[in-house]
Specification:
Creatine Amidinohydrolase, globular, three-stranded antiparallel beta sheet, four-stranded antiparallel beta sheet, 261 residues, alpha+beta
């Protein structure tokens, strides 16, 4: 599938969807605390997306095939050693946990996709360092986005930062193009070689969402066919933004109002 170039009108649709996804993460902040279940967070986000934003939660009923049922919830909640696609359930958050909340909103047919990490109470020093390094890696990748840049340069820069800190980049899952479809071309790897890969053009839109493990990069898919965990059960962290390539550089469509990039 060729990489789509969004027109100004299409970019406006993506901008709205991105803003709404960011708003959901802002809305849920005060509710992410010890004693709350991930299922409760899902119910809150679902209600906000459907009833307040008059939008659609993209993960709900997404992607069933073969033995894998469609995703059963409206957000992903990936806790501690869960790398991605954690299904909200009756798990109760406790002090010291780290949690990724991943939100994708559909508005007027356009998708906005973003995630962020949360600390439950006071994290350990190693957990905090992992989370902060992962966010730094995402920002390093975002800052390289612009016309003429290549995806291999972005992936290489992310990989170098992560590995210099003693961590591992997950390779089985990556960023992706986004627009009318949840997942479009190109694939945006968080590792790579300089001066390789797709050359970026204004109007391209994709996510940058490095998944970083405290231990090895190996992962394992659980029996629900969705939840991905670290094979060594060590912590994992992820941050994500939807980014638009502009004539002058880039625009982060899912930037939260209080966020410094």
């Amino acid at each position: 599938m060729p990489v789509s170039i969004k027109t100004p009108a299409e970019q406006a649709g993506m901008r709205t969807a991105g803003r709404l996804a960011a708003e959901v993460l802002g809305f849920i902040v005060p509710h992410v605390k010890a004693g709350v279940t991930t299922e409760a967070l899902d119910r809150l986000c679902h209600g906000y997306i459907v009833e307040v934003q008059r939008a659609v939660p993209a993960p709900l009923d997404y992607g069933g095939s073969g033995e894998r049922r469609p995703f059963p919830k409206s957000i992903c909640t990936s806790l501690n050693s869960v790398v991605c696609h954690g299904i909200p359930d009756a798990t109760v958050l406790k002090d010291g946990d780290i949690l990724n909340v991943d939100v994708t909103v559909i508005k007027d047919g356009w998708h906005g996709d973003t995630s962020r990490m949360f600390y439950i109470g006071e994290p350990s020093a190693p957990a905090r360092r992992l989370v902060e390094t992962t966010r730094e890696a995402m920002l390093i990748g975002i800052r390289l986005v612009g016309p003429g840049a290549r995806l291999g340069d972005i992936g290489h820069a992310i990989q170098q930062h992560v590995q210099a800190a003693g961590y591992s980049v997950v390779r089985e899952y990556c960023g992706h193009g986004i627009g009318r479809e949840f997942h479009e071309d190109p694939q945006v790897l968080h590792h790579g070689r300089p001066n390789t890969g797709l050359r970026l053009e204004p109007g391209m839109c994709f996510t940058i969402e490095p998944m970083v493990n405290a231990g090895t990069r190996e992962v394992r898919l659980l029996r629900d066919h969705w939840t991905v965990v670290t094979k060594d059960y060590k912590l994992s962290a992820q941050w994500e933004h939807t980014v638009l390539v502009t004539d002058a550089g880039h625009e982060v469509l899912t930037r939260r109002p209080d966020e410094v990039l």
